[in-house]
Amino acid sequence: MIKAVFFFCSGWLFSATKLVNPFFALLDPEVAHRLAVSAAARGWVPREKRPDPSILELEVWGRKFSNPIGLAAGFDKNAEAVEGLLGLGYGFVEVGSVTPVPQEGNPKPRIFRLREERAIINRCGFNSEGIQAVAKRLGAQHGKRKLDESSSTSPTANDGGKPGGKAGPGILGVNLGKNKTSEDAANDYVQGVHTLSQYADYLVINVSSPNTPGLRQLQGRKQLKDLVKKVQAARDEMQWGDEGPPPLLVKIAPDLSKQDLEDIAAVALALQVDGLIISNTTISRPDSISQNPLSQEVGGLSGKPLFDLSTSVLKEMYNLTRGKIPLIGCGGVGSGEEAYKKIRAGATLVQLYTAFAYGGPALIPRIKAELAECLERDGYKSVHEAVGADCI
C-alpha cells in the first residue's frame, strides 16, 4: 500500500527525468557525470517536497535521518551540488573524496560503463579540487543557511526533532582522501579534519580506493590503528560546541581476507570508531561480467555485480563487531529490496551511486517506497528493528 501511494505521488518531475537518461547514456561517462553534477548544482533537478514514510525515520550518532538512503562519495567530489542532491530526497549525501592539495587524478579515459551488467569500472584516482575549494563552498552554504535561519520565524531543520544537519534538511558526510604523492598519509587526513570537519555531520577516512597506490595498505592492523588514533586526536583537539565533534568513520574495501576483517574489527572496537562503510569498489571481476571486454579495464568495479560480495563482507563485519558499531552498507544497491537486504545484513544506513548514475532521480522515491513496503511486509515498525536480522 505504501509503495503504491508513494510512487504514484512521486511527482511528474521525477518521472520526467527518465526521458533524459537515454541522452546521458550516449555521452562519454565522465562528460555525463560532469553534466549531472552541474545540473544538481544549478537546481535543474526535481525537489522532493513530500515527507518520507515515517517507518524510514531513524537516529544515528544523535542525528536524525528522514530515511536511511544516502548518496555515496564519488558523485559530488568537490561539494558543488550538496543542496540540489539533498533536495532529491536522499537521507544523507557524502561528498569527496577530498584531498589536501588539488590533483587531476589518473589519465582519461578512466570511467567505463558496463551497461548490460548495470556496472561501472573507474580508475579516477582521487581527482579533487582540494580541501580549500571544498571548504569555501561548504562555508558559503553554511553561512547562507545560518542567515536564512536568523531571518526566518519558521522552525529550523533541527527544531522539534526534525531530521537535518549542518547542510539543512538531510545529513552531510565529508569523505577524506590522501594525495597520490604524499609521503605522510596521516597528515593528509589530519589536514582534512582541521579544514572541513566544522561543516560535516560525519567524517570518513577513505583507505580503500584501489586507484591510489599504497592506499589500501593503510587497512592493515597497525597502520589503521596508528592512522585512526592520529585523526581522532586531531578532531578531538578542536573546539566544539554542545553538539560535540562529528562522528569519524572508516571506509573499507570488499577485497579483504577474513584475517584482515578481524583486524579492522578489533581496531574499530578498541578505538571506538563511530562507524564503518562497507564497502568501496572491488578489484575482483565476478563471473557475471567476464564476457564483457571492458571487464579487463584496470580500476574499481561498482554496481550490481558488487552486491553479493559487499553484502557478504557487511554481514561478516556486523558479526565481528557484534553489532556495536553502526555500519553503512554500500555496493550494488539498485532497489528497495536490495537496500533491505543490506539492512538485514547489518547496515543501519545504505548508500548507492552506480544505480543512480543509470536510473537518475526517479530511482530515489522508488527505492524509499520499496524499502518501506519491505519493512511493513515483514512486520517491522522501524529500520532499527530490521538491522542485522539475518546475522547470527
From TrEMBL:
Chief location category: mitochondrion
Cross-referenced InterPro entries: Aldolase_TIM, DHO_dehydrogenase, Dihydroorotate_DH_2, Dihydroorotate_DH_cat, Dihydroorotate_DH_CS
Organism classification: Eukaryota, Viridiplantae, Streptophyta, Embryophyta, Tracheophyta
Keyword Membrane: yes
Name of the protein: Dihydroorotate dehydrogenase (quinone), mitochondrial
Manner of cofactor binding, per the entry note: Binds 1 FMN per subunit.
Annotated localization: Mitochondrion inner membrane
PANTHER family: DIHYDROOROTATE DEHYDROGENASE (QUINONE), MITOCHONDRIAL, DIHYDROOROTATE DEHYDROGENASE (QUINONE), MITOCHONDRIAL-RELATED
Pfam families cross-referenced by the UniProt entry: DHO_dh
Chain intervals for the UniProt region annotation (Disordered): 139-178
Top-level taxon: Eukaryota
Pathway stated in the Swiss-Prot or TrEMBL entry: Pyrimidine metabolism; UMP biosynthesis via de novo pathway; orotate from (S)-dihydroorotate (quinone route): step 1/1
Reactions accelerated catalytically: (S)-dihydroorotate + a quinone = orotate + a quinol
Family membership noted in the UniProt record: Belongs to the dihydroorotate dehydrogenase family. Type 2 subfamily.
Required cofactor(s): FMN
